[in-house]
C-alpha cells in the first residue's frame, strides 16, 4: 500500500483506467497473516487449519491466493460454493456455513462431499433427506450455540449441546453414520474476547466427548472467525480519539464529526448537567492482541482447573479449525477515489466530493476510523488549494477542515464522518486513498443505487494490475 501511494502516476492511472473508486488488491500479506495463526498453534502442539471467510472480500483473487497457499475457505452461499469449487479448491478444504441453506445448496455441497456446518434441526432433517435421496455420504459439522456463561452473549446461530444430543439420540444411528457422519463441532462468536473463545472451546470439547461416547468419529473443532486485527499501530492516538469524541459529544461540539455525530454516543441532559450515554459503535481499530498472540491467549486459557484449551485438544487428538475473515485480509487492499469537487454547504461547512458512494467503504462499524491519504495527482493550475504557495485567486479554503461526501442523493452521504484537515489543500483530480479496506469495507455493504456501477476490483499481477474475475462472474 505504501509503495503504491508514493507512486502518484500509477494511482492516477488506476482511477483513469478502471474508474473511481477502484479497489486495489495485493494478496502477498495473506501468507504472513495465516502463518501467524498456524505458527502460534504449533507452539502449543495444536494442529490448526485456516479456512478464510469468503464473505470478507469478494475477489476471485482471494480464492486463488488461499488455494495456492494450501489453506481452506469458509463459504456462505450457493454462488460462493460453486465458485470456489470451480477455482479448484478441494472439497475437504471448504466448509459451508451459510446461515440459510436451501435444498439445492445442500444437494450441491453433499454431492461434492463438502463439509456442512449444520445450524439447526430443520436443516439437519433436510440434509438427511437430501443425502438419502442422492445416495451420498458427506461429512457434517454440528454448529454449537454455546451456553450463556462467563460473559458469552446469546446467539441465534447453532443449537445448544442438549438439543443436538437429544436429536441424535432420536434418530436411527445408522442413518446419521451412513449419510452425515459427524466429523466436527463448530461455533462462531460475536466479538473478539479470547476468554470467550476459551469458554466456548471448553463447551465444544464437552460436546465432542459426548459425541465420541456415542460412536461419532469427531476429528476437529472449528472456532469460527472473529480473529482481531489492528488498523492503527499507535495506541495513544486511538485512545486520544476516544477521549476527544467523548468531549465533543459532551459539549455538543461538531469539531470532530459531521453535525456532531457521536458514532453511537449521545448527550443526555440531567439536572446536574449533560452526561454522555450510549455505546460507541465502532470497530476497535487499535487492538493489542492480534492473530497469533490472540490465539495463544485463547489456547493457554483454562477450560477446567489446571487444563488449558491446548492441552484438552492435544489429549483428544483434535485438530483446531478457524474461519478468520478480516484479519487475513490485513494489508491486502485499499480503495482509491477521485476528487470531483470542493464546495461549502449552505451553513458554510466545507465538503469534498468524491466519485464514490458511502457503501463503497463501509461495514457495520459507525465509521471507518483509519485516516485517508491524499495523493496529489490533481490539477495544480486553475482552482488552487489552501497551500498558499501558489497564490491563486481561485484558492479553495477549508481552514476548519472538510468532510468527504459521495454520490448518493442523500443529505448525510458521508464517506467518512470525521472532519479531515488538508493543510496543503485538495484539488479536483486528486486521489483519496482509503487504506486497508480489503476486509469487509469495500464489499460487504456495497450497493449500486442510482444505477451507478459497483467499483472495479483489480489485483496486483507481476508489474501491473488486472481486473478481477468477480466483476464479470
Ligand atoms: C463472518 C464469519 C466469519 C468471519 O469473521 P471475521 O470477524 O471476519 O473473522 C467466520 N465464520 C462465520 C460463520 C462467519 O459468519
Percent helix, as a range, is 25-40%
CATH-defined topology of the largest domain: TIM Barrel
Q: State the domain count.
A: 3
- Ranges with pLDDT <50 over ≥5 residues? 381-394
Number of strands: 20
Class from secondary-structure proportions: alpha/beta
Label the CATH architecture of the largest domain. Alpha-Beta Barrel
Please, what is the average pLDDT?
A: 95
Q: Looking at the structure, what is the overall shape? A: globular
GO molecular function: diaminopimelate decarboxylase activity
Keywords: Pyridoxal phosphate
Protein name: Y4yA family PLP-dependent enzyme
GO biological process, one term: lysine biosynthetic process via diaminopimelate
Short overview:
It contains 13 helices and 20 strands.
List keywords for this structure.
3 domains, 473 residues, alpha/beta, TIM Barrel, eight-stranded parallel sheet, Lyase, Ornithine Decarboxylase, Chain A, domain 1
Amino acid at each position: 500500500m505504501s509503495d503504491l501511494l508514493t507512486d502518484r502516476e500509477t494511482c492516477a492511472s488506476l482511477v483513469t483506467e478502471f474508474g473511481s473508486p477502484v479497489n486495489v488488491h495485493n494478496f502477498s500479506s495473506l501468507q504472513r497473516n495465516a502463518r501467524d495463526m498456524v505458527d502460534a498453534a504449533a507452539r502449543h502442539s495444536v494442529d490448526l487449519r485456516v479456512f478464510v471467510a469468503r464473505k470478507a472480500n469478494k475477489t476471485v483473487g482471494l480464492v486463488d491466493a488461499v488455494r495456492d497457499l494450501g489453506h481452506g475457505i469458509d463459504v456462505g452461499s450457493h454462488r460462493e460454493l460453486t465458485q470456489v469449487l470451480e477455482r479448484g479448491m478441494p472439497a475437504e478444504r471448504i466448509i459451508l456455513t451459510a446461515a440459510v441453506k436451501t435444498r439445492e445448496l445442500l444437494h450441491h455441497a453433499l454431492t461434492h462431499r463438502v463439509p456442512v456446518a449444520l445450524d439447526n434441526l430443520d436443516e439437519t432433517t433436510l440434509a438427511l433427506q437430501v443425502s438419502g435421496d442422492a445416495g451420498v455420504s458427506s461429512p457434517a459439522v454440528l454448529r454449537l450455540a454455546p451456553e450463556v456463561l462467563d460473559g458469552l452473549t446469546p446467539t441465534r446461530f447453532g443449537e445448544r449441546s442438549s438439543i443436538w444430543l437429544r436429536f441424535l439420540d432420536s434418530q436411527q444411528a445408522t442413518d446419521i453414520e451412513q449419510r452425515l457422519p459427524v466429523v466436527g463441532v463448530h461455533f462462531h462468536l460475536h466479538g473478539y474476547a479470547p476468554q470467550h473463545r476459551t469458554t466456548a472451546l471448553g463447551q465444544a470439547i464437552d460436546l465432542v466427548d459426548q459425541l465420541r461416547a456415542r460412536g461419532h468419529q469427531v476429528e476437529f473443532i472449528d472456532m469460527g472467525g472473529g480473529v482481531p486485527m489492528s488498523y492503527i499501530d499507535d495506541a495513544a492516538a486511538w485512545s486520544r480519539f476516544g477521549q476527544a469524541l467523548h468531549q465533543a459529544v459532551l459539549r455538543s461540539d461538531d469539531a470532530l464529526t459531521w453535525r456532531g455525530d457521536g458514532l453511537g454516543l449521545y448527550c443526555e441532559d440531567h439536572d446536574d448537567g449533560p452526561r454522555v450515554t450510549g455505546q460507541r459503535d465502532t470497530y476497535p481499530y487499535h487492538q493489542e492482541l492480534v492473530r497469533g498472540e490472540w490465539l495463544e491467549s485463547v489456547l493457554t486459557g483454562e477450560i477446567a482447573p489446571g487444563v488449558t484449551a491446548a492441552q484438552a485438544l492435544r489429549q483428544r487428538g483434535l485438530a483446531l479449525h478457524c474461519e478468520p475473515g478480516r484479519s487475513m485480509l490485513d494489508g491486502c487492499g485499499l480503495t482509491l477515489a477521485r476528487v470531483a469537487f470542493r464546495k461549502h454547504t449552505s451553513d458554510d461547512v466545507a465538503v469534498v466530493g468524491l466519485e464514490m458512494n458511502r457503501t463503497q467503504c463501509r461495514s457495520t462499524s459507525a465509521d471507518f476510523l483509519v485516516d485517508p491519504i491524499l495523493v496529489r495527482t490533481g490539477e495544480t493550475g486553475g482552482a488552487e488549494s489552501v497551500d498558499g504557495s501558489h497564490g491563486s485567486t481561485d484558492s479553495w479554503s477549508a481552514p476548519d477542515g472538510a468532510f468527504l461526501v459521495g454520490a448518493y442523493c442523500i443529505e448525510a452521504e458521508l464517506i467518512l464522518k470525521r472532519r479531515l484537515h488538508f493543510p496543503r489543500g485538495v484539488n479536483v483530480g486528486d486521489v483519496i486513498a482509503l487504506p486497508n479496506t480489503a476486509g469487509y469495507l469495500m464489499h460487504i455493504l456495497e450497493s449500486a443505487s442510482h444505477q451507478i456501477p459497483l467499483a472495479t476490483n483489480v489485483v496486483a499481477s507481476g508489474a501491473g494490475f488486472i481486473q478481477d474475475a468477480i466483476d464479470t462472474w
